[in-house]
Amino acid sequence: MRASLLQIAVNPAESPGSRRLRVAGLVREQSAADLVVLPELWPVGAFAYRSFEAEAEPLDGPTHEVMAQAAKDAGVWLHAGSIVERDPDGALYNTSLVFTPDGERAAAYRKIHRFGFDKGEAVLMGAGDTLVTVDLPETTLGLATCYDLRFPEMFRGLTDAGARLLVVPAGWPERRRSHWTLLAQARAVENQAYVLACGSAGTHADVEQAGHSIVVDPWGEVLAEAGAGEEVLTVELDPGLVATTREQFPALKDRRLGLAPPR
User: What is the pTM of this model?
Assistant: First the structure.
């Protein structure tokens, strides 16, 4: 299984509409991939709080339209990063979109953990309340976004729901880049799953982005890591490695706390 992470640079001189078209072109170039992943809030910038209201769009808005067509043209599963979603009641959400190779929306995930404490995203956006997984032909994706990476209980919940590949689009700041790589590896090791963490490049509202998108295998080994600038990171994954790892080192079977109810 081939996955491509598109580490997109958000340049304030580039309009969201122009960026959508440019990124759609990059997605179309990944026709050899099975799965393509984009960063968090790339149409507007994860820290561009002042633009959230103006750039908010409905679930089936312009980003949905352009990315659905790009996924279909490339024939890939596309995690299209996230958008500022405006719900019909007017509330805003940080919402990820996943498309099938036919261009159909397979899932939408509203970010559960909002960053900012008492400002920014934490006060401007509503919180999601549902764990979301997506079944692909060879694996199951577990969806999370950026700040979610700091909450291991969420990833254990996704694992209990069947996730074997944890996808984390982000707009992670450079000043905390060491946390980014540490947490991505930790989530992979503790859940014995792949982690695909796709960051953004550039500067969002004067906040320098970490970049350094990273792919970690179920043993915690870094398979690939990007640099700081815009980059396409492509890696071959073995979906069977998750089951093999869990069989060879069955730590998940020894859990005593927080066990999922029988299904």
Answer: 0.96
